[in-house]
Design brief:
- The protein has about 120 residues and is mostly helical.
- It has helices spanning about 5-10, 15-20, 40-55, 60-70, 80-120; strands spanning about 30, 35.
- It has a two-stranded antiparallel ribbon.
- It contains five helices and two strands; from the N terminus they run ααββααα.
- Helices cover about 70% and strands about 5% of the residues.
- It has a single domain (about 5-120), classed as Multidrug-efflux Transporter Regulator, Chain: A, Domain 2 (Orthogonal Bundle), CATH 1.10.1660.
Length: about 120
């Protein structure tokens, strides 16, 4: 399929697909006329990329997941290299949650202080 069809089927734009290609995440074949041709398997890879990006993974973090899919695995997260990235991302999310919990507690304390000052 051509880049426009892949973009339509994946719910993205040709520009985004070219960005993925620049970073080695997707691999088109080139026709004699230079047009990019994509196999159906690339649609699955693009969906994986978009899901991981939406979950906050960086482009470099996504590469092991794509390699895992290309190796014929049923999912991009089942390979050891992907598990390393998953563990690191989980630790980052846990850290963010801890920091957000601290912010939440400070805001609640400030609101309590305001209520105490307003009640006679």
């Amino acid at each position: 399929m051509l880049i426009g069809e892949l973009a339509d089927r994946a719910g993205t734009s040709p520009r985004t697909l070219r960005y993925y290609e620049e970073h080695g995440l997707i691999r088109p074949r080139r026709d004699a006329n230079g047009y990019r041709q994509y196999d159906d398997a690339e649609l699955r890879v693009v969906h994986e990329i978009r899901t991981l990006l939406a979950d906050g993974f960086g482009v470099d973090d996504i590469k092991p997941f794509v390699a895992c899919l290309r190796a014929g695995n049923s999912a991009g997260h089942v390979c050891p290299e992907s598990a390393v990235v998953l563990r690191r991302r989980l630790a980052e999310v846990d850290d963010l949650l801890d920091r957000l919990t601290g912010v939440r507690e400070r805001l609640q304390d400030q609101l309590k202080e305001i209520r105490c000052q307003m009640t006679p």
